[in-house]
Design goal:
By secondary structure, the protein is of the alpha+beta class. It starts with 10 loop residues before the first strand and ends with a helix.
Length: 179
């Protein structure tokens, strides 16, 4: 987990440093934070990355028609708990959203901690809407608007913003694990 739920500091795995520590992102010499965007406060889930995956910036994704963002796959963990920064979680992948961020593919996997009380009920993307109505819509909305307060445009999505299922997510993971 890079960023615990309800926090605002923009933390990232440092790909360039030995042992890849999690550090606060810096832009133009200033520490970065995500703004609160109504009605949300900070990150609305635990946010992290899936190890041994990489969105290749030299590869044009056949689904999104965009190059990768040069990062590991992002994961939003939707369980009830608030994680600690640096915590390693075993998660169950449920689906994926294809965000297009400034012309780059930025896949957002949705997962649940295998130890979460809801884990047995959630096995695929459709189960989230059944047991946690509105959560997927709120997540897509958050990703669409979170950069607007910094003067950037709203993010767009491939597939018209449709969440793709676990089988599709598994294919994205396998592909990004092969680079």
């Amino acid at each position: 987990v890079e960023i615990p739920r309800w926090t605002n500091a923009k933390m990232e795995i440092s790909k360039e440093e030995h042992l890849n520590p999690i550090k606060q992102d810096i832009k133009k010499g200033k520490l970065r934070y995500v703004n609160n965007v109504f009605p949300y406060h900070g990150y609305i889930w635990n946010y992290g990355a899936l190890p041994q995956t990489w969105e290749d910036p030299s590869h044009i994704d056949e689904n999104t028609k965009c190059k990768g963002d040069d990062d590991p796959l992002d994961v939003v963990e939707i369980g009830a708990g608030v994680a600690k920064r640096g915590e390693i979680k075993q998660v169950k992948i449920l689906g994926v959203l294809a965000m297009i961020d400034e012309g780059e593919t930025d896949w957002k996997l949705v997962a649940i901690d295998r130890n979460d009380p809801m884990a047995d009920k959630l096995n695929d993307i459709k189960d989230i809407e059944t047991h946690m109505p509105g959560y997927l819509e709120a997540t897509r909305d958050w990703f669409r608007i979170y950069k607007v307060p910094t003067g950037k445009p709203m993010n767009d999505f491939a597939f018209g913003g449709e969440w793709k299922d676990k089988a599709f997510a598994d294919k994205v993971i396998a592909e990004t694990n092969s680079y």
